[in-house]
Amino acid sequence: MVAATLFILLAAVQLPAAMLTTPYMSTVIRLGEVACYMHPLPDEYKLESPAFDKSPVALPCTVVALQDPKLNLAQELQSAFDVFAQADDVWSADFSENVIIQAPEDLHTLSKSQKVAAQELGITNLRLIPASLAQNKLPPGPYFVHYGRLYQAYRLYPDSAGAFMVSAVTDDDDGFRPIDAAAYGEQFPSALTVAVPSRLYYNKTETKPYAGLRLAIKDIIDVKGLKTGASSRAYTELHPVREETAETFADSEWPTGWTFLLAPIPWEALDHQLLPMPSSRCVPRWGRQAQTVSSRTALSNNRKWDTIGGFARSAAEYQVLAQALYGSAETANKTYEKPVTLICPSDYWPVQDEASQEVFETFIVRVENFLGIKRTNIHLADTWEKHRPDGVDESLSEYMHSAFAWSANRDQWLGLLKPFIDEYTEKMGKPPVLNPQIRFKVEYTPTVTKEQQVEGGRRLKVYHDWFYQHIMPPAEDGHSSSVMVLPWTTGKPDYRDTYKAGPQQFTGEGFFFYNIGPYGNCPEIIFPAGSTPYISKYTGREEQLPAALGLIGARGSDLMLADFVSKLFESTVPDWAEFE
């Protein structure tokens, strides 16, 4: 029998004063080097088996469904174990010593030969779930049995990168609760522990196409049962646990403009560096607000600019997420024609780093071959000069230099920072402690006038009209006739221990390659196209950096762009496959 170490941490969920505090337990099991969390199931799953009822030890077990009692039991179990080991990162051979079979109604007992065959597989306890529980059929996979009650198995991972604020599990009230569990303290003493359920519990269907996806949500979006912290201790302290989960979208006349970051990168192999831009920020880059999150259930930085983006390990996985975020029943199985134009702005091509340019060129050729076309080189600044909007004398970069700063920052002050500071000061009797970058924002954002805000919006409208007429027309029925390719990395390492002279004083001024898409309300997908070598200052050896590209689609082509990139990666084998 596998030795399982049991730890129990008691905690209480913070509820409104009118409600009683509900106690709960976060129970951690250690199976060798792997830590797991025991998630309780309802009482109806209590087992009526003496072998399990009397055991005070938390036993790892596997639930298997047997459809036909005439089948070879040992072969069926071994086949199930093989599938589980291949498909799941929670199940392991440690769960195979105790097996619970969900049997057909006509199978009440196991024969002696079946039990002997099971023992030859290393199974020490083999039991049937009574047919009377058929209406409460369990998904197959790993579980724990403790005093006759079944618990789901969640594997615990250390958040060694410090990427998460809280790890949450479902509660009994259609919401979530934080998991107060610690593990791996000897190696990661200050790391949050993240719990992930077995993938075997979830079966994708037409009505549940997203079952089994593991999602991380930025802590500016309300989740029932958790606090929305906005990465701020003061903001977390000010607001109670949320009583409802954010609505996904509200109606809008504008099609979505989002940014998606693909990152099949092993975080532990990043050689103590900041993740390459934009990954170093670990958030979607802003695009023009389109279908927005409700202001009641999400923290808004700026209503005119906020939008929902995604970060996934592969293009195929993101296509599924994109359909959930931006799609509908009508778009679920929609097919799109390929773009007919591949735009390469010579303002930014070629890049200075030769190794990066070689990787980028190879990938762009792949895109050309996939589309059956050759790239179209344009120069944005020259096109602006040639087709300068009426009444405009400045260059593109000069004209757009303050457009975003004026458009966004006044609302950031009046709609977010000032109300938060005022509310906190009134409630706590003192102003909140803010980090240096936010303190800079508090000083700068109130200086933007109403007149500047209006002018910023007007300049963005001028950019829209020019961009749609001369660069990339809006999508028709969700289809973009063109895509634009942009470089996102420089080929140079950016180490974490390189300290800055002071906080980043970012106002949003300037016009850069990463403004092109958001200023045009366009979706963009960013992904590693390959890797470039460098000599690490830590190892003294050659290591690899991801070389990232961005593909921009026309306004309104969010789903089409996700579909295009997914098919692009299906049909080609890019260099970044080594990161998988």
From TrEMBL:
<protein>
    <recommendedName>
        <fullName>Scytalone dehydratase-like protein Arp1 N-terminal domain-containing protein</fullName>
    </recommendedName>
</protein>
<dbReference type="InterPro" id="IPR058329">
    <property type="entry name" value="Arp1_N"/>
</dbReference>
<feature type="signal peptide">
    <location>
        <begin position="1"/>
        <end position="18"/>
    </location>
</feature>
<dbReference type="InterPro" id="IPR036928">
    <property type="entry name" value="AS_sf"/>
</dbReference>
<keyword id="KW-0732">Signal</keyword>
<feature type="domain" description="Scytalone dehydratase-like protein Arp1 N-terminal">
    <location>
        <begin position="53"/>
        <end position="157"/>
    </location>
</feature>
<dbReference type="Pfam" id="PF26053">
    <property type="entry name" value="DUF8016"/>
</dbReference>
